[in-house]
C-alpha cells in the first residue's frame, strides 16, 4: 500500500472566528499583527506619493495588473439584463462570480509566477471573495480585506518581495486598479453595502482608500482635510489622490447634496487640521472598526498561509457554512437587504452605470 501523495487533501481557508472570545484571541495574536503590519507597511509606502508617481514596475506588478484586466473583461462579459429595474443587487453578478471562480486557479497559475501549486486553491479563495458575496450580492470592507489578504499571501510565499518600488506599486498601481474594477462591479451590478452603518459609517463599501489616501496627502503643502468640501478641488485632484477620488464618487451617487447630511463621519474628520493626524486616526479606526468587529471578522478565512490563532473555534465538520453567526447591530449582514445608494442614484437619473467608467466608491 503506497502512501498518499502530499497535498492530496487540500484544505481551503475557512472561517474560525465564530465567537466574541475568538475575536479577542485573534486581536492578541501574531496573525492579527501580521495582517495589520502588512496594511501599515502599505500605508507607509503610500505616504506623500500621488497616484501618478513614477515607479519602476516589476514583472509581478504587471502580472497582477493583467489579472485585474481579465476580471474587468469578465464583468463586461456578464452585463445585467436591464439598466434600471430594482433597488437591490442584480443577479448577473453571480454569473460573473461563478465564471471568475471557475477560472481563478488556472489564471493564477498562468499569470502569477512562482506560486507553489498546492497553495493556488488557498490563494484563489481570497481572490474570489475580493469581489463581494455571491449569495447576498453585497460588498463591504471585509471583502476589501480579502484582496489585501490575497496580496499578503503572495508576500508570505515570497512571490512578492517588499523591496524597491514594489510596496508603493502595490498601493498606487495594484490597489488603485482593484478599487477601479471594484467600483465597476458595484455600479454595474448595484451591489448592496455589506453591514452598512448608514450615514454613521465611514463609507458604504471601502475603508482603505481613505487610509492610504490620507497617507498620500500627509505631506501635501496646500491641501487640507477641509478641502473635501470644495467640489472644484475634489474634481481636480480625484485622479491623483485616493481620498479625493472616494469623495468624488460619493458626491456622484448620494442624492442628498452635502457631505454633512449623507456622510457626517467624513464631515467630522474634515475638521482635523492635518492629514497626518487623519491618517493616524484611520489606522486606529481600521484596527477597531474592521479587524476588531465580529460581524466583519466572522467571515474571515484562515488557512496554511494566514493561520488561525491557537485557541479559536475549531473548523466546522462541513467547512464553515453551518457555523454560528453573529449579525451586525446595524443591519442583518446576511438577510435584510440594504438598498444601494448607487442603485438609488441610477434609478433617479435613469443612468446605466454598468457602461460608465466610474471610480470606486469608498
Q: Summarize model confidence as the mean pLDDT.
A: 85
What oligomerization state is this entry in?
Answer: single chain
Strand order of the largest sheet: 1-4
Portion in helices? 40-55%
The biggest sheet, with number of strands, parallel, antiparallel or mixed sense and barrel status, is: 2 strands, antiparallel
Number of helices: 15
Report the sheet-strand fraction: under 5%
Distance N terminus to C terminus?
56 Å
Radius of gyration: 20 Å
Shape call: globular
Order of helices and strands: EHHHHHEHHEHHHHHHHEH
Tell me the structural class. mainly alpha
The unreliable regions are 1-9, 318-322, 327-338, 352-362
Number-wise, the strands total 4
Amino acid at each position: 500500500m503506497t502512501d498518499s501523495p502530499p497535498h492530496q487533501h487540500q484544505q481551503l481557508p475557512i472561517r474560525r472566528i465564530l465567537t466574541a472570545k475568538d475575536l479577542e484571541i485573534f486581536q492578541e495574536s501574531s496573525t492579527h499583527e501580521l495582517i495589520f503590519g502588512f496594511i501599515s507597511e502599505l500605508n507607509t509606502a503610500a505616504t506623500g506619493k500621488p497616484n501618478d508617481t513614477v515607479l519602476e514596475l516589476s514583472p509581478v506588478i504587471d502580472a497582477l495588473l493583467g489579472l485585474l484586466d481579465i476580471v474587468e473583461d469578465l464583468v463586461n462579459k456578464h452585463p445585467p439584463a436591464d439598466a434600471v429595474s430594482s433597488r437591490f443587487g442584480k443577479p448577473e453578478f453571480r454569473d460573473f462570480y461563478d465564471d471568475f471562480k471557475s477560472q481563478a486557479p488556472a489564471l493564477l497559475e498562468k499569470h502569477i509566477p512562482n506560486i507553489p501549486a498546492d497553495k493556488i486553491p488557498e490563494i484563489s479563495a481570497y481572490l474570489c471573495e475580493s469581489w463581494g458575496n455571491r449569495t447576498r450580492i453585497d460588498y463591504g470592507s471585509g471583502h476589501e480585506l480579502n484582496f489585501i489578504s490575497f496580496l499578503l499571501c503572495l508576500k508570505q510565499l515570497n512571490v512578492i518581495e517588499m523591496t524597491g518600488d514594489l510596496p508603493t506599486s502595490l498601493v498606487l498601481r495594484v490597489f488603485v486598479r482593484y478599487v477601479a474594477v471594484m467600483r465597476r462591479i458595484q455600479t454595474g451590478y448595484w451591489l448592496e453595502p455589506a453591514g452598512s452603518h448608514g450615514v454613521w459609517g465611514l463609507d458604504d463599501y471601502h475603508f482603505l482608500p481613505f487610509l492610504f489616501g490620507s497617507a498620500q496627502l500627509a505631506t501635501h503643502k496646500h491641501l487640507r482635510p477641509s478641502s473635501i468640501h470644495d467640489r472644484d478641488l475634489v474634481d481636480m485632484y480625484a485622479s491623483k489622490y485616493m481620498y479625493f477620488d472616494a469623495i468624488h464618487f460619493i458626491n456622484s451617487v448620494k442624492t442628498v447634496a452635502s457631505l454633512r447630511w449623507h456622510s457626517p463621519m467624513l464631515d467630522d474628520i474634515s475638521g482635523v487640521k492635518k492629514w497626518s493626524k487623519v491618517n493616524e486616526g484611520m489606522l486606529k479606526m481600521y484596527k477597531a472598526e474592521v479587524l476588531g468587529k465580529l460581524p466583519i471578522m466572522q467571515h474571515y478565512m484562515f488557512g496554511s498561509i494566514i493561520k488561525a490563532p491557537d485557541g479559536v473555534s475549531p473548523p466546522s465538520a462541513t467547512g464553515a457554512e453551518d457555523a454560528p453567526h453573529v449579525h451586525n447591530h446595524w443591519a442583518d449582514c446576511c438577510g435584510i437587504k440594504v438598498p444601494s445608494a448607487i442603485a438609488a442614484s441610477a434609478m433617479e437619473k435613469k443612468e446605466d452605470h454598468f457602461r460608465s467608467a466610474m471610480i470606486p466608491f469608498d
